Amino acid sequence: MDAYILDWLQLIFRWLHVITGIAWIGASFYFVWLDNHLEAPPRWKVDKGIKGDLWAIHGGGIYEVAKYQMAPEKMPETLHWFKWEAYSTWLTGMVLLVLVFYVGADAYLIDTRVAELTQLQAIGIGLGSLLAGWLLYELLCATPLAGKGYLLGLTLVVLAVAFSWGLTQLFSGRGAYIHMGAIIGTIMAGNVFRVIMPSQRALVAAIESGSEPDPSWGAKAKLRSTHNNYLTLPLLFIMISNHYPMTYAHKYNWIILLAIIAISAFARHYFNLRHRGINKPIILVVSLLATAALAWAIMPRPSPMATASATVPDAARVEAIIVQRCATCHSATPTDDVFQVAPGGVILDDLQGMQRWAQRIQARTIDAPDMPFMNKTNMTDEERAIVSRWLAAGAPGELHGE
Ligand code: HEC
Q1: Which of 321, 371, 379, 383 most suits a substitution to test ligand 1, by most atoms within 8 Å of the C-beta?
Q2: Helices 281-297 + 253-275 axis angle, to 10
Q3: Cα 381 vs. chain centroid, distance in angstroms?
Q4: Domains of the chain: which residue ranges?
Q5: Are 125 and 170 in contact (CB under 8 A)?
Q6: Centre of ligand 1 from the C-alpha of residue 401, in Å
Q7: pLDDT tens for residues 240-259?
Q8: In the chain, count of helices (H) and strands (E)?
């Protein structure tokens, strides 16, 4: 596909995905908030079957919201359901996955330093991992484990470890992270589609026919929405992690991914407890400390190669390396087959450009060995060491013609 058209399609679907994702998670946060701010209603409302109510002001209007114990005496004509937020987030996400990681598998998904896959193999493994992750989760929830909170949680953790490790042994760091995110997103959308919506339909049908709603549906829906609740923050992290090579491009990227999932789910726990009237700020403090510890543990240490020799490499030598290894993409006129516009607007055609971007070159080439992209231009460790020494010396060098 023409790179320009592909860029536009990606832009449009990324935009739609963000919008629908905000609508989904926003609605879900809003209803959790509602539930936790309901107050005891006045007598006349209790008599109508109302369990709690609240007042709010927004956008120039005052709202009165009431939640029924079960249902109103007569079902209203219009009942708003919340499901398309979830479905459309999943659908746009799948399109985006295909556009970025499957159409562009050679560039984004396959890293020949990790595994030599063909495009077809990579796509097969990718889609297979989504299906497998979702099926395993569904099967687990169908076993008696589903009733045992901690055991189920533990099994899910073991599964997450297996997937995180497995994916990073097959895909580029970015590709592995995004597939983990897509598995979580599929599980969440699947929960809405397979369990939460049917249980709501069953509830409405029971009320309309005047029969007792089956409580097992409600319990199942509750379990799945609790899972979704804990998965929101990890999912959102994974979706933005592609901007941060210090995570996905690290040697231990699979452990980092698991650590971040654990920390962000734990932070969610604070809000869930608070909603039940339990205030444990220590949870947030522990999450913050854990994040700081993680950041410290994966902090780039100056490589011995960079410090071994005190000689500052010649600027012309560094310029030659960067032009050869980076400017195929990072140029005003790139020659790369995939990237036909300088990625991120980073242009490294000459010394001036290299000095301007020195800090980012440090971040992307030395601290996290994420550039050259998938090491497509075969930069050697020795060249990295030379660039590193030059950066450590403050990126010195005269500009041409000055
Ligand atoms: C095969 C193409 C390709 C090559 C070669 C390449 N890059 Fe990149 N670069 C990319 C792409 C794609 C992005 C945008 C994606 C991203 O930001 O992760 C990018 C982004 C960047 C960014 C901007 C992001 C930021 O963090 O500010 C920097 C800096 C960078 N590359 C530096 C380099 C350096 C230095 C080299 C050579 C050692 C290099 N790149 C070689 C494709 C390439």
Answers
A1: 371
A2: 170
A3: 31
A4: 104-297, 305-392
A5: yes
A6: 27
A7: 998 998 999 899 999 999 99
A8: 16, 2
